[in-house]
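Page 47, continued from p. 46.
Same chain as before, 298 aa.
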Amino acid sequence: MDKPSDPSPHPVSEGFPWSRLGQPKLTGKELAEKGRAALRRLRDWGAALPPTNRLERAIRMTARELGDSLPAGRVAIEAGKTVVDFHFITHAQAERPPEEVLQRMVAALSGGDAVTSDSDRRPRDIQFELEIWAAFRIGGIDVWFEEPDLVFRLGSRRIGIAVKRIWSVEQAHKRLSDAAQQIEGAGLLGFIATNVQEYVVGVEAELELAAKGRSFDIDVRRLHGQLAYLASKKHVIGLILRGTGGKAGVDTPGQPREMSLATYTQTFMFMDDSDAPAFQELFATIGEKLRQWFAVNF
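Result:
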């Protein structure tokens, strides 16, 4: 597969229907049970979990206050995302993952309840790598950890994925540039996957699907401004955006508080028309299987 010498950004790689959006809406009690299921699976796989790890703390936080109420504030949203993300990662496949993947799952459990230092960021960087791994595994794609970060096969071709979590909008260009260099250094063509968490502050998790999609596009349009730059990079053939918006419901006397979450995935491609259909089919398949996964699990 050759990238065209004068590429231009392709539209979204496949017509993404917002019905594929992961949008769990759970009480604190329900969230806590999802977290416990993730812990059970890790223990069944023989993972040596650190005591009082971040997932266990998130479970206690979401389950506390009368058993089903969620504490208010950003920390509560972070706890809800932690639970949902680790359930996603640990339930991407039924069989025990390779040891290197399991070790990454354990490493991702460290860090504080809120992000205040590099020691909080690094575990979440690993967590995001695992989210991308899990999305491909749920999509039925064989993917493994190898430089640039992940590698998968499409037919006889090996395709890389450089995974970079963006922690501030100001660092986006540098992080994406580093990812492009990482793909080139691996000697592969590949995608950049980036977390758009810092962009989706305006996403209203309780909106209906089409409105959520429009809200997401508005929030990440600044990042869309990087598409032309990435398309100019010889080894970069696409960009995968992933993020989660969340909102805790209001307190109603006698009723459990709910948390609404919405998980977004959007993919762009920079390649000629002869190669685009195979990748469009790939991401359409992954997207549909993700929709089915969320329908069953949440």
